[in-house]
Each structure stands twice: as structure tokens, then as C-alpha cells.
Amino acid sequence: MSQRLVAAIDQGTTSTRCMVFDAAGTVLGSHQREHRQLLPRPGWVEHDAVEIWARVQEVVAGGLRNAGVDAADLAAVGIANQRETTVVWDPATGRPVHNALVWQDTRTEPLCAELAAGPGRDRFARDTGLPLASYFSGPKIRWLLDHVPGARERAERGELLFGTLDTWIIWNLTGGAVHVTDVTNASRTLLMNLRTLDWDEGALSAMGVPRAMLPEIRSSAEVYGRACGVLEGVPITAALGDQQAALFGQACFSAGEAKSTYGTGAFLMLNTGREPVPSAHGLLTTVGFRLGGEPAVYALEGSIANTGSLTRWLRDGLGVIGGAAEIETLARSVPDNGGLYLVPAFSGLFAPHWSPDARGILAGLTGFARHGHLARAVLEATAYQTREVMDAMALDSGLRLESLRVDGGMTANDLLMQMLADVLGVRIARPEMTETTCLGAAYAAGLAAGVWPDLDALRAGRRHGAAWTPEPGTGLGARQYRKYRKAVELAKGWLDEDDVIEGI
Ligand SMILES: Nc1ncnc2c1ncn2[C@@H]1O[C@H](COP(=O)(O)OP(=O)(O)O)[C@@H](O)[C@H]1O
Ligand SMILES: O=P(O)(O)OC[C@H](O)CO
Fold first, then answer.
1. Which ligand has an atom closest to residue 15 CA?
2. Does residue 110 have a cis peptide bond before it, meaning omega lies within 30 degrees of 0?
3. Which of 34, 294, 339, 485 is found 20 to 30 A from 200 (Cα to Cα)?
4. Cβ of 301 less than 6 Å from ligand 2
5. Could you tell me which residue ranges the Carbohydrate kinase FGGY C-terminal domain spans (predicted)?
6. Is 454 exposed, middle or buried (0-12, 13-18, 19+ CB in 10 A)?
């Protein structure tokens, strides 16, 4: 076997997968494993980083086995990862000092509110492109330093390291030799300056995070080091936050190209080119990718916290469905939502509202409501939330999208695809290969390793799958969107101050 194969590891919120690609972008083999969601209190979400590292090794071994190849056949490996989720560990033992705090975790809301009331409040939006919200890594690091005994002193002495999942995986893959992050992951910490692409001293001191524990920020596609163990000798040549990896995998290389990924949450991202575009309408300014020494490419993002997680909630929380695919059958068992509107503010509302004090609401309940209506309300909530961020994007960028490229686990749902077309009023395009997160990590890794010569070669390899266009008269029009927006207003401000302190 020639060394033209590339492996990608996608470490997501609910599962980790590995895929092996050939130079035509065809998947030769893959493997996937879920990990535990630890929910110690309402609003708190944790992962065991040691368990995740074990899953990474298992899926890599399984992916290679299913592809019928060895590590020696790989030209490179690339990593895509759930962003913001925060690990702090002791490099002497390789053990985390606490479970990882997951991006959905809301425990740092009081801290964010305190910082937002302080003198440095505007610096974060101006310098990092992000609102002060519990979503991002900075407040999570601060929480760990404040709550794990002795952690702050040890971090200041450089005896503890911080990383998002890219950093944790690269550190482990290299046997503890390499402590780096990529610029897309660093852009989600509230600690990186968007223009210098380095840690921002002002943000660090306002957040109370010592620089000694932070990884070096590198580009998204370059050689970080060589792996040992399960990927013995393979160069690690890409790391991207999973949403940026999907942007790359959808070949949104030029300004004006956009994608929306539907997994646990949904993330609409628009490539805005070589200048960061500040948002006045509740979006994030973030780094899309940076290839080696080339200038960074920026993006505007609308992050939605809960979409696919609602399907999971119907399955695991309520027992309404037995498997994710059943939500479509259940939703199709009724002609419409029966007047039900679900605002899934399980972690407050992210873009474009950034309302930490909102909580979920099921509005319009009558005795007529059945499980089928709930299934529809869940799917429609994904479409309405996308509409909110798409409208904000048009205001911020002056650009009206005519077509949206979609991907992620939830796009297997054809009914949802039609709902998106109807609610957004645009063409929805699903590629043949919907695992674009893995594909993007593989593209970036393969570019750095010379498997593909340039972006044009990647663009030419894109394979179209299916498309949906708006169908008038489906009952998903202006009136339904207005009702959803009305329900959003009811969900806001639900938490009282003492609830926030209790972390509910
Ligand atoms: N047919 C479906 N309809 C609706 N939701 C689905 C469907 N299939 C999977 N999902 C949801 O999509 C998510 C899985 O997508 P994935 O892209 O693997 O997510 P992540 O990367 O966030 O772990 C799960 O939350 C699951 O509940
Ligand atoms: O792992 P996913 O696909 O749920 O994506 C999570 C995002 O990166 C959070 O910002």
C-alpha cells in the first residue's frame, strides 16, 4: 500500500470516530464509539478525558482494521474535535485534575455575569470576537483553578497544563512530548486575540488564567509531531475545531460560502475571508482555518446549543423513541405540530440571543398533543433556530444566502431537510458524504502532507448528494416562525438570581 492514505479522528460531544480516506476522498474504513455524558447537577455537563483518550485509541485501531491497513500506510493523521471543552491535567502523571468541563456546561454563568459587569467587559468582544458566555473555555479554566485545591498555584508554576480536546489528544498521541493547539480551537477560549492570533495578555489577566499552562498556538495544517503507540510514526499534520473542519470538508474555502452542521448542536458558519467581521447581531467572530504560514481565514458563526441532543433526549430522557431515526417516522405520523412549539433552551440560548437565564419551554400545549406533535416540535425547533442565525448573518455580512450546505448526523433526517428548506426559504444541499467533519480534518492533514496539492484539487473532488427546495403550502411559513419567536420570549428570563447561583 502506498503512503497516500490519511486518517481523521473526530472527537465529538457524544462519540469519537476515526475514518481512513484514500487520495480520492473515499472512505476505506471507519470505527466509532460513544462515551459517557456525566451530568452531576442540572446544567453541569462533564466528560472523563481519560475515557475519551481510551475511545480515541479504540476507534483508531478499529478504523485501521476495518480499512485493512496499518499505521505504516498512512501519510498523515488529522484531528477534529468538539470545541471549548476544557481539560486541565498534570503532565507528570498524565491524569486530569478534574473531569473535563463540556461546552454545554453552564456552571460558569455567575462568573461570566460578574466579568460582564466589570471594567474589562468590552475587551472580550473587541479582542476575542466572543461574548462573555459560559460556552467558552476561559471561564471553565478559571472555574477549575478556583475549585480544584492547589490548582492555581500549580498552574502558575507550569505544573498543570490546559487543553481543548485537540491538545489533549495530540499530547497523548505524542507520549506527552507536544503541547499545542490550533488557531481555530484557540479562537474559542475568550483568551486569544483575533488579530495577533496569540494569547491576549489583557484577556488572560481579566480571566485570571496563567499563561504558563497554555499550549502554543499553531496553524490548522502543519506537522505538530509524530505519533507513538497505535499510530506509531504517523505525522500529525492537522487540527481544527469540528465546526471549522466541517467548513473545510464542505470546501467552503472562499468568502461568502457557508455550511450548517447538525450534530448535538447546530453551527452555521460563513467564510468571511481574510478580515475578521465583527458581529452586531449575536454571532461569533472566529477563525475558519489557517493553513501553515498563510494568512488566517475568518468566519462568522451562529452557534445553537441544542438540536440533535433533543432527539437523544426523546430517546434517553423521555423514552418516546427507541432510536434516533424513529423521530422521523413519529413526526410523519401527524400532519403538523398540533400547535406545539419547543424552545430548547436547555443550556440557555446561544446565538443570536445569548440568554443564559432562558430555560426550555413547550408552548401551545392542549389535550390534543401527542408524541408525534412533540417529534415535529423538536425538528421544527432546529429549523427555526437556524432561521434566527441565518437572518442575523444576513444583517452582519450583508449577504443573503441562496443555498446552504448541510452535514452532520441529523441530516440523515429527510423530513428535517424539507423543513429547513421551507423555514429558511433557500435550497438545502446535502453532500454524498455527510461526515464532512472527518473529511475536513483529512483534507487539512493531507494538504500539509502533500497528498493533495492545493484547495482546487479538493474543490474538484466534492460530491453532491441530495437537495431540497422550498415547497409552498407545507404549513411552515411566517405565522409558524412568528409563534416560535413568541415562545422564545417566554423562555427568556426564566431563571431567578438564586437559581443561577445554585446552577440550575
Ligand atoms: N435521523 C435523525 N433525526 C434526528 N436526529 C438525529 C438523527 N440521527 C441522529 N440524530 C442526532 O444527531 C446527533 C448525532 O450527530 P453527530 O454528527 O454524530 O453528533 P456529534 O458530533 O455532536 O456527537 C445525535 O444527537 C442524534 O440524536
Ligand atoms: O461535537 P459536536 O459536533 O457536538 O460539536 C460541538 C461544538 O464544537 C461545540 O462548539
1. 1
2. no
3. 294
4. no
5. 259-449
6. exposed
Whole-number Å distance between alpha carbons of 480 and 406:
23
**H-run or E-run covering 54:** helix 49-67
CA-10 nearest atom, ligand 2: 1
- Write a three-state SS string for 272-327: EECCCCCCCCCCEEEEEECECCCCCEEEEEEEECCCHHHHHHHHHHCCCCCCCCHH
Does 308 appear as a known binding residue? yes
Residue type (1 letter), 235: P
The size of the chain, in residues, is 504
What CA–CA distance (Å, rounded) separates 193 from 296? Answer: 13
Give ipTM to 2 decimals: 0.97
Q: How far is ligand 1, taken at its centre, from the CA of residue 305, in Å?
A: 13
Which amino acid does the sequence have at 67? A
User: Is 66 a pocket residue for ligand 1 (Cβ < 6 Å)?
Assistant: no
Could you report the per-residue pLDDT of 75-103, keeping only the tens digit for each?
999 999 999 999 999 999 999 999 999 99
pTM across the whole model: 0.93
Ligand 1 pocket test target in 264, 306, 417, 420 with most atoms within 8 Å of CB: 264
Measure the CA–CA gap between 115 and 314, rounded to whole angstroms.
Answer: 36
Q: Which pLDDT tens digit goes with each residue over 382-396?
A: 999 999 999 999 999
Of 83, 376, 410, 419, best ligand 1 pocket probe by most atoms within 8 Å of the beta carbon: 410
Question: What is the 315 CA–ligand 1 centroid distance (Å)?
Answer: 12
Listed residue (291, 273, 128) closest to 198, CA to CA:
128
